[in-house]
Write a structure and sequence with these properties.
Elements: E1 2-5, E2 10-13, H1 17-36, H2 41-53, H3 58-63, H4 76-86, H5 95-105, H6 116-119, E3 123-127, E4 134-136, H7 145-160, E5 168-170, E6 173-175, H8 184-196, E7 206-211, E8 223-224, E9 227-228, H9 231-238, E10 242-247, E11 252-256
Parallel strand pairs: 7-10
Antiparallel strand pairs: 1-2, 3-4, 3-7, 5-6, 8-9, 10-11
Helix pairs in contact: 1-2, 1-4
């Protein structure tokens, strides 16, 4: 499905839910087939991911003669499908390791602090104590995130007024109050909220967010003039009791409400 979305106005391509469910069913059937043939669950799961994702890979784009110099990432279809499949990753796996597998399966470059602007962040959120992950990637890796961003900008306006969107000083620079909604941490939380049913589905609950890099200034919940900023606004609006952010380098941030 293709539609016009976003405050700046862009055409967005979104994989319909029925297609996503069809591909998840195909993946599950492949896993069953491979485990019956003697593969371990992990090996079967990985091989099935490769087979289902391959038609949406950069290699597939190249075979169709559509690869250009601007194609450095998989098409939006690949990101959406991978996130949908990885929501059912084998239980008990380290979420940080799963993020690395997402990058590997999509041929995304590994995160590098020296090249943070290019390698970006992949994130995942879950209810504390649960295994099911909801994934997010930066807006400029997934244009379909515009729809989520705009939906939740309106929600935050309704709940908090518009002061939360105003620029504010932090660590010697001016921060756009709404910019955090375009980053992987927030987008993974928004996907978790929608999967949980929206509305008050996360109220009174603690959530965990995992990323392959430390949370940045735009997201870290600084307080300016007594007003919470960044992801603290999102936590307040959704009614969660605590958000715990864990990065691949071992650092963590806890926001309690």
């Amino acid at each position: 499905h293709t539609y016009f979305a976003g405050q700046g106005g862009v055409w967005v391509h979104n994989v319909c839910p029925a297609k996503l469910d069809e591909l998840k069913t195909a993946h599950q059937a492949l896993v069953k087939q491979k485990t019956k043939a003697g593969k371990s669950l992990d090996d079967a799961w990985d091989e099935a991911i490769d087979e289902v994702l391959e038609p949406y890979s950069l290699a597939a784009v190249n075979r169709k003669g559509q690869l250009t110099a601007t194609h450095t990432l998989p098409p939006d279809d690949g990101l959406q499908i991978a996130f949908h499949l990885f929501e059912d990753a084998p239980k008990g796996k380290d979420p940080i390791a799963i993020l690395a597998r997402v990058r590997e399966k999509l041929n995304l470059p590994p995160y590098s602090a020296a090249q943070a602007a290019r390698t970006k962040t992949v994130g995942a959120a879950r209810l504390a104590g649960d295994d099911a992950l909801s994934f997010g990637a930066p807006k400029n890796w997934s244009r379909w995130a515009d729809e989520l961003r705009d939906e939740y900008t309106s929600l935050l306006d309704d709940l908090l007024g518009n002061a939360w969107r105003q620029p504010y000083p932090h660590n010697g620079r001016m921060i756009d109050g709404a910019a955090f909604l375009e980053h992987a941490e927030a987008l993974s939380i928004l996907r978790l909220h929608k999967r949980a049913g929206g509305n008050d589905s996360l109220a009174g609950k603690a959530i965990e967010i995992f990323t392959d890099r430390p949370t940045c200034q735009l997201c870290d919940g600084a307080v300016s003039d007594g007003i919470s900023k960044g992801l603290r606004n999102l936590g307040e609006a959704l009614g969660v009791t605590k958000m715990t952010f864990r990065a691949a380098d071992g650092t963590s941030v806890v926001m309690a409400f």
